[in-house]
Q: What sequence folds into this?
């Protein structure tokens, strides 16, 4: 009777489209369909047009996309120096718990291993982890046995963790809206948070795109 398509944009990005269409095609025409998506690109709208009849759109919009309780800043660092810069920041920042975003599964694994070697307790979560392993890692993070979580955007979807003091962008995401989702993990429920981005010179154009979208300047440090 009811079909719910959650994280529709990520399903498209991960190439699940054919599977989703196959499932939808086998459901009865008389049904209620709900579609949730953080972003609404043309492909999502096309999906809605195909599988929904006269859908009602509910859009949540804020005056500013990012939270004013989150301090945003960036450091201009050569790609090869990013891990050293990150280590130095861990020495000087009052970090209670941190979520670090990297691009790929391989990068999350390599970065978490390197941080452990440098004395920073870190673990990676990515799409290769099964649900049990993922829950174990998240359990350690929630109970402060683990200080640092290194994640891909896909693995971090749906994470509900309180009290993350710092979010680090080891790389800027390709999509400015993803930046907003990332840093929204800190500065929640009236608490203040810090979002730090390490930017290689070639990423500067994308930083301007983020500032244009959020209508906020990110402080260079």
A:
């Amino acid at each position: 009777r009811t079909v719910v398509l959650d994280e529709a944009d990520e399903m498209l990005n991960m190439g699940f489209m054919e599977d989703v269409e196959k499932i939808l095609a086998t459901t009865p025409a008389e049904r209620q369909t709900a579609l949730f998506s953080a972003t609404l690109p043309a492909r999502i709208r096309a999906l809605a047009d195909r599988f929904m009849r006269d859908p009602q759109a509910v859009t949540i919009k804020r005056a500013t996309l990012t939270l004013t309780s989150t301090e945003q800043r960036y450091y201009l660092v050569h790609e090869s120096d990013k891990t050293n810069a990150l280590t130095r920041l861990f020495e000087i920042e009052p970090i209670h718990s941190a979520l670090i975003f990297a691009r790929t599964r391989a990068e999350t694994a390599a970065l978490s291993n390197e941080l452990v070697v440098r004395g920073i307790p870190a673990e990676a979560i990515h799409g290769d982890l099964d649900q049990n392993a993922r829950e174990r890692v998240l359990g350690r993070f929630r109970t402060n046995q683990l200080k640092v979580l290194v994640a891909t955007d896909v693995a971090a979807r749906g994470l509900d963790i309180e009290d993350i003091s710092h979010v680090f962008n080891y790389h800027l995401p390709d999509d400015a809206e993803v930046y907003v989702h990332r840093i929204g993990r800190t500065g929640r429920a009236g608490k203040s948070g810090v979002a730090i981005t390490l930017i290689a010179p070639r990423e500067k154009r994308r930083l301007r795109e983020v500032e244009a979208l959020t209508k906020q300047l990110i402080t260079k440090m």
Remarks:
- The first strand starts at residue 2 and ends at 5.
- The radius of gyration is 19 Å.
- The mean pLDDT is 86.
